[in-house]
């Protein structure tokens, strides 16, 4: 494992950084929020990202993808994270798309992945429930055999990027295990109710009230989805840490700019040692996160035996560091850091949501210990 | 690449043939081993033989040029040598500040005569070096040092006191910062001098630390005469040389603590915790300690990945990035946290000083903990390191 960007990855990161700086500054997130945009992201921008080839990064070439991996996705997500871009990478590509790619039949992959990669179809993975907390396999929704197909019932919470999605991948108890089922979002009995969280990203309650699906809706074997869910959530977790890396780096830059320009006691406040040392601590944590994220992405891409541990390392560190960075930013901005007018609050809110998505720091520390046998 | 593969095979064959069998599998600890010098006595004849063979090949200082007693290896070859030694768990033949601190600085700043005089003797382990930087009145504010060097013809006459000179009582030469100009900016009147400790007027007394050991000394200079040709760099220009050497020192410290020496390196934190606190369904029984163990283990992993990232970037031809500035502060503080935790895990058995009722591991660990308190002080305090990061990496104003 080489913890360094290849030339191609450097070029991708640079292209994404330029694109994000031009099209996806944090002011856009504010505008989407203030306009109460129903889906909370830009479909136009999503299509542009698809045209650039980013949406299909992990999919096979015959399915309209680039046949690359998390190392490349992280390059893009980090760049987009700088401006807190809300486009549906997590829900559509890293969760639902990845589940279809890993468990779908050739026909299912051919039917959906090219349309996801082109930006024509947005998909979401409905797995989390009120009782799940961070265990993706703790679910109560059911898939009961009905005719040659199944009847789905239950309720999913905070389904990422589900509002306006065309396709849902639903996890439900089936026989002795968990199955994943492809469900059109306009199917009879499906209700997608937008949820508003502190970061105003796209998330929804998905209510399934006797939703009938046919035999070919099952993604893989209908009782073998549990392990797959964990694998897919791990995959998405690494993508999320890439995003977090970008957003904490940007929040820290904004803080440094403030420390250099804000004057009190006739001096820039960044000249005071109390603040210098706080800033140095934040810097150290961000650098450690970068190493952990790079390692996790490469380990998952390579199918490394240590991959799950490194995912937990990256998610635990980024969770702690993103909150530390944002909390320290608000403190060092002082009073204006508490105002809605300043952007730093957006970073704090997103850091909190990201920390408590796919397992928080404590949950991943517990998992690390379990994986290492103590 | 074929050349490297061939080099690897040759290297492995040579190591297997030449390393005394008693040393194979012994592994390495960056803070233990053969330090060399006139006063060194070998506890083990294998170690002596191993040093002679490695030095003859130039592999005690593998990447130094051959004409100065080094191995002349490229960075890639030096890495292969290190990898092969690690994989055979062969200890380094020689360690010390000659190889890690003054040697690289001599290569950078020394004139031809100085390099030919000093480097081969370092590589053969004949001369052991110590560092004369801090003074009682010049700690973090190093540039305020007062040890004076007055010019008399071709000599300097040095008078003053150095403190925290590591292992000075066992060393042969000292590299010291001395004041050659009293007025003007304090950084601009400092000279970097190489001093033979056999010179009349040099005296050394060890300092007893809270851990019970005396790795540091006070070194006094009372009218010590030093030839002017022993100036490294320029007269009054020693601060530049001093800072370059500090860079070597801090990366050495980071390396040492990243790989954690001492008792704690022999048994992993989770194992010690399991032994002392018991297990509950395969887990360390005390959930609070378990979480702290995980934190320390994860911190260590993230730190080592960052060290690796810096090395991988260097190999790929990138300039060293600012991330390396965090190694000293984070590596040392991590080592301290680990030791705090280990002593706590031992409970009453973590309180032993000497004698019966405590085993070797417990006593050593407790003393290592006491010793570790100095990690964030020596070689530039954590506070000074954070100042450096704030100024040079983050660009915050003075």
Summed up, what is this model?
The complex is a heterodimer of chains A (374) and B (398). Chain A is α+β, with helices and mostly antiparallel strands and 374 residues long. Chain A has 11 helices and 10 strands.
Can you offer a commentary on this structure?
The complex is a heterodimer of chains A (374) and B (398). Chain A is of the alpha+beta class and 374 residues long. Chain A folds into three domains: 111 residues, Acyl-CoA dehydrogenase/oxidase, N-terminal domain (Butyryl-Coa Dehydrogenase, subunit A, domain 1, Orthogonal Bundle); 101 residues, Beta Barrel (Butyryl-CoA Dehydrogenase, subunit A, domain 2), CATH 2.40.110.10; 146 residues, Butyryl-CoA Dehydrogenase, subunit A, domain 3, CATH 1.20.140. Chain A has eleven helices and ten strands. In chain A, 56% of the residues are buried. Chain B has 398 residues and is an alpha+beta fold. A four-stranded mixed sheet of chain B has the order 1-4-5-8. Chain B has a four-stranded antiparallel sheet with strand order 2-3-7-6, with no helix packed on it. A two-stranded antiparallel sheet of chain B has the order 9-10. In chain B, strand 9 and strand 10 form a beta hairpin. In chain B, helix 4 packs antiparallel against helix 5, helix 9 packs antiparallel against helix 10 and helix 10 packs antiparallel against helix 11. The mean pLDDT of chain B is 91. The chains are: A alpha+beta (374), B alpha+beta (398). At the A-B interface, helix 7, strand 10, helix 8, helix 9 and helix 11 of A face helix 8, strand 10, helix 9 and helix 12 of B.
Strand order of the largest sheet of chain A: 1-4-5-8
The CATH superfamily name of the largest domain in chain A is Butyryl-CoA Dehydrogenase, subunit A, domain 3
Count interface residues per chain for the largest interface: A-B, 39 and 43 residues
Order of helices and strands of chain B, N to C?
HHHHHEEEEEEEEHHHEEHHHH
Query: Could you tell me how far the N terminus lies from the C terminus of chain A, measured between alpha carbons in angstroms?
Result: 26 Å
Rough outline of chain B: globular
Q: Ranges of chain A with pLDDT <50 over ≥5 residues? A: none
> What string gives the helices and strands of chain A in order?
HHHHHHEEEEEEEEHEEHHHH
Portion of residues in beta strands of chain B equals: 5-15%
Task: Output mean pLDDT of chain B.
Answer: 91
